């Protein structure tokens, strides 16, 4: 089971809740693209997904290990993030 650590300041800045982040990560249509490793050498990725209310967000994740994900960034997904991720919305 993955444990999330949230950068509460970043989420608040963009009006995103931890629940929305989890919903978007769990979105069946969520997609991602790799980012440069963190300063600590951990792998990172940007995930684009939708919340249950249909809000499309981009989420920056640092994979500390297989069970700990550091959510350091989340905001409404911009067109560049959607394009890079290859996100395709499927009508529910």
Give a quick rundown of the structure.
The chain is α+β, with helices and mostly antiparallel strands.
Structure, described:
- This protein is α+β, with helices and mostly antiparallel strands and 92 residues long.
- The chain has one domain: Nuclear Transport Factor 2, Chain: A, CATH 3.10.450.
- Helix content is 24%, strand content 38%.
- Strands 1-5-4-3-2 form a five-stranded mixed sheet.
- A hairpin with a 5-residue loop joins strand 3 and strand 4.
- The longest helix has 9 residues.
- The termini are far apart.
- The mean pLDDT is 91.
Architecture blueprint of SSEs:
Blueprint: E1 3-6, H1 8-13, H2 18-26, E2 31-35, E3 44-50, E4 56-65, E5 68-76, H3 79-85
Parallel strand pairs: 1-5
Antiparallel strand pairs: 2-3, 3-4, 4-5
Main attributes of the structure:
single chain; 92 residues; alpha+beta; Nuclear Transport Factor 2, Chain: A; 5 strands
Give the fraction of residues assigned to helices.
Answer: 10-25%
Q: What is the mean pLDDT?
A: 91
* Order of helix and strand elements from N to C terminus: EHHEEEEH
Main β-sheet description: 5 strands, mixed
CATH topology: Nuclear Transport Factor 2, Chain: A
Q: Structural class, from secondary structure content?
A: alpha+beta
> What CATH first level would be assigned?
Alpha Beta
Quote the distance from N terminus to C terminus.
27 Å
Strand numbers in spatial order across the main sheet: 1-5-4-3-2
Q: What percentage of the residues does DSSP assign to strands (E)?
A: 35-45%
Number of domains: 1
Shape: globular
Radius of gyration: 12 Å
Tally of contiguous helical segments: 3
State the total count of DSSP E strands.
Answer: 5
